[in-house]
Amino acid sequence: MELRQLEYFVAVTEEANFTRAAQRVRVAQPAVSAQIGRLERELGQPLLDRSRRQVRLTAAGAAVLPYARAALDAVRAARTAVDELTQLVRGSVTVGTVTAHNVDMPELLAEYHRAYPAVEITLSTDTSDALLDGVRSGRFDVAIASVGADEAPDGLAVATTTEEPIEAVVSRTDPWAGRRTVGLAALVERPLIALPAGGGIRRQFDRACAAAGLAPHVVFEAATPDALADLAARGLGVAIVPGSVARGRGDVRAISIRPELRGRLVLAWRATGPISPAARALIEMAQKLVGGGA
Fold it and tell me: What's the CA gap between 150 and 158, in Å, rounded?
């Protein structure tokens, strides 16, 4: 059993796809398949169900997964211990972000690269839920994600980058264009435009509706708040967006939701477990940029 086999197995499990896993570990897809096949033959059981469009764990795979993750964590911890002993900042860092945020990521990464040119940086985007899970699992060293105003993600330390209300946005010609507030009960009667499930703002809205016994009717989804506002401006429905989105736009009108919903963008990193010197340096630099603590 080799570490790379465990690494490939964990990557396929988390990505639910061989091609994306291969891209993540930066090897050809046939190599990933071959190594996992060897691992399965060594263990005598299939670990992955490949019969569906999305790869899933078998019962044996679910049993092996926590041990595979623990082995990889142990290796990372050993490398971290050696690097800290020799005071080296090298290796790689992986940063994840939502598609829209207020952090000057190019400036942060440029400053970091100037300070630590030997560190390789990977930047990718995903939904808030996937990003937070990725930080917990070690897939990301640090992430910018959306959470509830009072939410404290399990196992993570966070620094708030911004907090603002969640609002409804309509076109200038919409019957609600003159309204200042709207309740959830009235809002769910309209066709809604929202971020995909798994996004922080969408999660806050869905939870509020569920708590009130309401079922929202989402007719359009888009990856960014600005794209949601663009759809609302064309009269396709009511967009659920951060309060800052409507500012400076003349083609939409913002309506406050009652009871008030608030969202928060945070910088998140693991509160426990090994953190490499390279990742720790990036986290400290990012904290200074956003001006917050845990």
Answer: 12
pTM, entire model: 0.65
The Cα–Cα gap between 20 and 23 comes to: 5
CA-closest candidate to residue 204, choices 153, 146, 278: 146
CA distance 139 to 93: 10
**181-183/119-125 β-pairing:** unpaired
Classify the C-alpha dihedral 114-115-121-123 as positive or negative: negative
Exposed e or buried b per residue across 59-96, where buried means at least 16 C-beta atoms within 10 angstroms of its C-beta: eebeebbeebbeebeeebeeebeebeeeeebebebbbb
Q: How far apart are CA 190 and CA 67, in angstroms?
A: 48
User: Tell me: the pLDDT tens digits for 215-243?
Assistant: 999 999 998 889 999 999 999 999 999 98
Partners of 92 in beta bridges: 120
CA-to-CA distance for 284 and 74, rounded, in angstroms? 24
> Helices 3-15 and 18-25 meet at what angle, rounded to 10?
130
